[in-house]
Amino acid sequence: GSQKDRVLSEEEWLKKWEMGNIGFHKERGHPLLQKYLDVLLNGRTGLRIFFPLCGKAVEMKWLADMGHSIVGVEISEQALREFFAEHGLSYCEEPVPGISGAKKLQSTSGNISLYCCSIYDLSSSIIGKFDGVWDRGALVAVNPCDRQRYGSLMLTLMEKNSSYLLVTVAYDPSKHKG
């Protein structure tokens, strides 16, 4: 079928994590973030940086170690727990008021807060606004029919002088499936 009609359910994403079918996860920081870090930071320090559909992105720890405050969202609790375990970070867990079944896993240092829920359950009244966004594949992962909704949500989460780094792909679907 056509890629624009693709729909993956939350259950299918959870199954990918459960089965270790996470070829999208990068063990090392993404080279484009390293290359364009100055664009994201724009000379600023102590930023609030958002990671939509964060998985267990190693860049979250890297930026937190630079003194930034990191907020991520991911449907897979397994991915979030693996992030903390793989980086040897202790964390506390609490429910998210107003979102049934959602959890916030926060590093005990307080500079990394990861929400386990659907991104569409979040709003700026819950997670605040951000100085920067690192979208390394969220827009690509979002079902095409939800991309407008995703874009609108992201706009509501950005401060006026935000920087948004987006990694996406363009390809000829007749030459590459998926």
Automatic annotation (TrEMBL):
It holds the Pfam family TPMT. S-adenosyl-L-methionine binds at residues 13-24, 53, 74, 118-119, 136. It is found in: Cytoplasm. One of its GO terms (molecular function) is thiopurine S-methyltransferase activity. PROSITE patterns: SAM_MT_TPMT (PS51585). One of its GO terms (biological process) is methylation. Keywords: Cytoplasm, Methyltransferase, S-adenosyl-L-methionine, Transferase. Its main location: cytoplasm. One of its GO terms (cellular component) is cytoplasm. It catalyses: S-adenosyl-L-methionine + a thiopurine = S-adenosyl-L-homocysteine + a thiopurine S-methylether. Its EC number is 2.1.1.67. Belongs to the class I-like SAM-binding methyltransferase superfamily. TPMT family. This is thiopurine S-methyltransferase. It comes from Thinocorus orbignyianus. The lineage of its organism: Eukaryota, Metazoa, Chordata, Craniata, Vertebrata.
